[in-house]
Design a protein that fits this description.
By secondary structure, this protein is of the alpha/beta class. It has helices spanning about 25-30, 40-55, 60-70, 185-190, and strands spanning about 10-15, 75, 80, 85, 95, 100-105, 110, 110-115, 125, 130, 135-140, 145, 150, 155, 160, 170-175, 180. About 25% of the residues lie in helices and about 20% in strands.
Length: about 190
């Protein structure tokens, strides 16, 4: 599951949520500005939110893909993004959607986990890439968590919470996620 048409970013630690007392102070002190000025960081966050809202309700797939690309999401040309799909606003550049992928309405792709700082001994604040390999399908209301790679032609059933990698040609479902079947043999017989 290592090859990809995109150069995949490495995961990294991020600042814990709630470390700053106010929104204004966060930007004045640099917050999690990722090495850019506070005005530029604030502008990017607002821009990403507006693009998210537009993509969420856009009437055509072409428009949804274009708006998410503007936000920073890595999306292949013939990918399908359904209506009301939530794609991480804070770290959209950590989402990779390869060719012929289908993401159905209401799915969520969240590349970061940012607990309050009092959990720092228990939980790590981090951002990890989400990679959805070519031909995979993510069904209605599925949730894809940080650091997950979904293999080629894998199928994620409706309302599944995906918290670990999914092998190619596999169907998974549920919360906790369980493997239903592996169907590689069906693809071999089709050719």
């Amino acid at each position: 599951m290592n090859s990809s048409q995109f150069k995949i970013r490495e995961g990294k630690a991020i600042p814990y949520g709630g470390q700053e007392k106010s929104f204004k102070k966060t930007f004045r002190n640099g917050g999690e500005s990722r090495g850019m000025g506070s005005f530029k960081y604030a502008f990017i966050r607002v821009r990403n939110y507006v693009l998210f809202l537009l993509a969420y309700v856009a009437p055509s797939n072409r428009l949804r893909v274009m708006l998410n690309r503007w936000k920073g999401v890595n999306i292949a040309d013939d990918a399908y993004i359904g209506m009301c799909v939530f794609i991480d606003n804070a770290y959209p550049e950590y989402i990779y959607i390869e060719e012929n992928v289908s993401i159905s309405a209401g799915a969520m792709l969240v590349a970061h986990f940012n607990p309050k700082s009092h959990f720092n001994r228990l939980l790590r604040a981090r951002v990890e890439p989400i990679v959805i390999k070519k031909g995979a399908m993510v069904a209605l209301r599925a949730i894809i968590m940080p650091g997950v790679t979904i293999g080629e032609n894998a199928i994620i059933s409706a309302a599944t919470v995906v918290d670990k990698d999914v092998s190619e040609f596999t169907i998974v479902k549920g919360n906790p996620m369980v493997k239903v079947t592996d169907f590689k043999i069906l693809f071999k017989n089709r050719k």
